[in-house]
Design brief:
Blueprint (H helix, E strand, L loop, with lengths): L1 H4 L5 H21 L1 H7 L6 H22 L3 H24 L1 E3 L2 E7 L4 E4 H19 L7 H19 L4 H17 L4 H28 L12 H18 L8 H16 L23 H34 L3 H25 L18 H30 L8
Antiparallel strand pairs: 1-2, 2-3
Length: 408
Amino acid sequence: MSLLNKTKGDKVIWALVVLLALMSLLVVYSSTGSLAYKMYRGNTEVYLFKQVVFICIGILFIYFAHQVNYTLYSRIAQVVFILTIPLLIYTLFFGVRLNEGSRWIRLPIINLTFQTSDLAKLALFMYISRMLSKKQEVIKDFKKGFLPVIIPVGITCMLIAPANLSTALLVGATSMMLLFIGRVSMKHLFLTGLVALVPIAMLIGAAIFQHSNGNGIQARSENKSKLTARVSTWVNRVESFMYGGNSDEDDDDNYQVNQAKIAIAKGGFFGLGPGNSEQRNFLPHPYSDFIYAIIIEEYGIIGGGVVMFVYLIFLFRSIQLFRKCPYAFGAFLALALSFTLVIQAMANMAVNVNLFPVTGVTLPLVSMGGSSFLFTCLAIGIILSVSRYVEKNEAVKTSDGEPENEMA
């Protein structure tokens, strides 16, 4: 009971976290039943118990992070950001290779892998929130205001992109939105956008050229360097999205998309009901990348709409928090972290309904637990830390008429 009394911050955000966690338990249990049966000799509850453990640890992350005065995150932002640079470089060259990319670092002793890009995202948004808050008087100046905030974004995205292009694009898009809200010159943002569009246009052009020459799928089997192999994967994904393809299992991206379409078609308006998914037996990664398709299959378009609405409410509450926070760092921090979570969620949903090329991003707080799940909980805890301060400040303002000092 004392723990509940110490729980502060936006009650709506807390409720949304609990709601998504409950949804996660239901869908992860359903989507991993067959896999658990095969892997653990009939024990279908193994992944459910693992998810319960991750959710409990994640809630603890949220609780302890929201108890910390959010100004501490400003003090450590620069150090944490600098530390992520060598981590990202190490991941590129020595990381654990999965799905043709080096995205993970394996921690010794506990033998746990985690994505350094998750830590880098968190560190980057803390850092640029700090820089935006300190550079507001000169934010329109190219050298004094723009370069100090865009260089960290460029470095982070370039280091993430070779192993995880989709995450790099999401980080870049979120950063541009934050810089726009931070009153950065539109001219500078426009020029940055043009530069960023060059590699994207090159990928699209390569996909069109590859399709016209009819060598899309065959290119996957050729012996290439790691970087060339990644570029080939990106081009093939863009090509598959633009032109579609066969449902043959040899064509992984099209196979996943087609199985997701079948799941959505079977779900219809009201769904097949909890635990009644059929495509979980055919859809690769139904518990992570394509969990939204399973949600629609079991709970219908109504269920999928509810999940989307939950993320939009989360964003709305964070925007309100941004407007109420009297100090720039807390406002930018809450908005940046909420943007990255909601944009990631929308990207995952877009992939599942074939509105976006296949990526490796998960559905925050819903996909099966891992390092990404815990970093998401940490980000939510930081948002609630800002919310806790705003509530305290409003109470002080009501009684004294003066806001509490941010650095107190």
